[in-house]
């Protein structure tokens, strides 16, 4: 073998086209609904990390990171940490770094680790929103992700999502 370039891949097999098509539909429906609700309600329902949450919720719905506890709890906790750090320490390079680290710590301790939520403290530091940001877009948007994930994933395979709530 030429430097191991032609070895069989250890990466998992690609899912079926049907599975990927359903993942595509779930992501489009979720982001479309949150974007539309933002437009019609004049309240934000959408932040960039929700795109990554859709990758987990529809692409890897069996993952612990894709369960409702992690999607909702992880985003809420990480955002709360970001808001607290912003209020107590302001926006600086070190408070951003500490906020992300503290968010991970808090998610680990509450068993709500959700990788996309790790970006929320940085979103908070950048936007500098008020405390209402926890409700919209964070809580409302994550509930939308979970609701659509429940519907789409259970259409794909009845009773498959979520694996657990608590």
Give me the strand/helix succession.
HHHHHH
Q: Count the strands?
A: 0
Structural class: mainly alpha
Portion of residues within helices: 55-70%
- Rg on CA atoms, Å: 18 Å
Domain module tally: 1
Alpha plus pi helix count: 6
Shape annotation: globular
Strand content: under 5%
Low-confidence stretches: none
Mean pLDDT across all residues, rounded? 94
Give the termini separation.
48 Å
What does the main sheet amount to?
Answer: none
Domain HPP transmembrane region: 14-162
Organism: Duganella fentianensis
Transmembrane segments: 17-37, 43-60, 72-94, 131-153
Protein name: HPP family protein
How would you describe the overall organization of this protein?
This protein has 166 residues and is an all-alpha fold. The protein has one domain (19-156). The chain has helices at residues 17-41, 49-59, 68-89, 93-109, 120-127, 135-156. Helix 3 runs parallel beside helix 5. It is globular and about 50 Å long.
For this entry, give a set of tags.
mainly alpha; membrane; 6 helices; transmembrane helix; single chain; globular; 166 residues; TM_HPP
Helix-strand blueprint:
Blueprint: H1 17-41, H2 49-59, H3 68-89, H4 93-109, H5 120-127, H6 135-156
Helix pairs in contact: 1-2, 1-6, 2-6, 3-4, 3-5, 3-6, 4-5
Organism: Duganella fentianensis
Protein name: HPP family protein
Transmembrane segments: 17-37, 43-60, 72-94, 131-153
Short description:
With 166 residues, the protein is mainly α.
């Amino acid at each position: 073998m030429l430097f191991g370039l032609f070895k069989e891949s250890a990466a998992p097999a690609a899912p079926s086209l049907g599975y990927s098509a359903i993942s595509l539909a779930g992501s489009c429906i979720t982001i479309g609904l949150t974007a539309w609700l933002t437009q019609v309600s004049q309240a934000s329902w959408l932040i960039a990390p929700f795109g990554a949450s859709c990758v987990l919720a529809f692409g890897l719905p069996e993952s612990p990171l894709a369960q409702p506890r992690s999607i909702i709890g992880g985003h809420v906790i990480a955002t709360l940490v970001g808001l607290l750090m912003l209020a107590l320490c302001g926006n600086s390079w070190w408070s951003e770094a500490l906020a992300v680290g503290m968010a991970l710590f808090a998610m680990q301790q509450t068993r709500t680790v959700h990788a996309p939520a790790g970006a929320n403290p940085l979103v908070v530091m950048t936007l500098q929103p008020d405390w209402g940001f926890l409700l919209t877009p964070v809580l409302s948007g994550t509930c939308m992700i979970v609701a659509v994930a429940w519907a789409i994933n259970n259409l794909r395979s009845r009773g498959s999502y979520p694996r657990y709530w608590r």
